[in-house]
Specification:
Strand content: under 5%
Shape: globular
Helix content: 55-70%
Mean pLDDT: 80
Order of helices and strands: HHHHHHHHHHHHHHHH
Number of strands: 0
Largest sheet: none
Low-confidence stretches: 1-15, 21-36, 49-56, 370-377
Structural class: mainly alpha
Radius of gyration: 22 Å
Amino acid sequence: MADLISPESPFKEEVQRFIEESGIGEKSDEILGPFSDISKQVAEAIWDAFLPGSPFSSLSWELLTFTLIVATGFWFFRKGRGAKDASGRERPTKSLLQYLLPEDIYTHQSARVDIGLYLLDRGMMPIWFALSLGTIAPFFEQNTIGALQRTFGASPGVDPTIPWRLFYGLVSILIVDMIFYWTHYMMHKTQIGWALHKVHHSAQVLTPLTRPREHFIVGPLWALGPAIGLAISGGIFAWVFDGNITQITILNVGVFSVLYALNGNFRHYHISFRYPRWLELWLQSPGMHHTHHSYLEKHWDTNLGLVTSIWDRMMGTIYIADKYEETPWGLAPKDQAEYTTLRDNLVTPFREIIRILGKKPKIYPAGIGPDLSSQKSRDVIG
């Protein structure tokens, strides 16, 4: 089953075979120092960025192709409507190529910054993956099983029928969704969290590469949340089923990953993908995330959920925009000036954290200051 849901790119496999047969990769097992290892990880990240093989990634060729196919269908059925320009306004177009891959989006400075942050994210990913799944997840899983055994005794040994497996998948999604919401909420509602999360919101255009656009020290938070959620769920159902749920878990995570990757591409894509309004009250549509990225004050801190809209409704953070509502992306101009280049996005969060810990007032560059309009500072929250 794992092989079924994790196909490799045939082209990448051919190149890898050539490398091995040619002897280029003969020294791959040599001992590496930490800096050599980091360089190797970054090189592999660049390799994977150009030749992604797993459909778990929203940037796999399969899912990118599917995204373009769905967007092409939107172009035909909507008669060119639904695409937004770099200012977040709808831009009807008669050209399919301009609809799918507009020049002003993909040549924008923000899109270039996405590439740099994405490669750094991929280089750091093995560290966060090992930390979350190699240490934290087993800890929470074993303690969950132990707590259930101490409280309720031996496992009931429930037969993992299809309905039970579906229920296990549903519980896992809801737990992960809850943890994601509260992590995201704290990113927006605390000063240090927002200083870091501004990197993601500084994207002035949305492309599939915007999804991993985060400051590199935020990686552990986004990795640990799902790992803890899945570990708690896995511990609960390992006790319910008396173990033997590894393959079920792989299938559940695989299905969820593929579905989220499909949805995730449109969350960060200039073409709006909306659900019927009644459904958006329960499930987050990609178009709702367009609103989340808007710097208009009425859109601040809204639609924080990953899968469902349940927590947004409970906390009053849901915002269901009109079908083609304007959503100018990025930060307010006075903040955007400090989070524009790749260097800005790597360095400014550290400066902001030092300022916050030192309880110093925010000082904007000359000519760029806080005002009393809808672009007032968000740094007063938290």
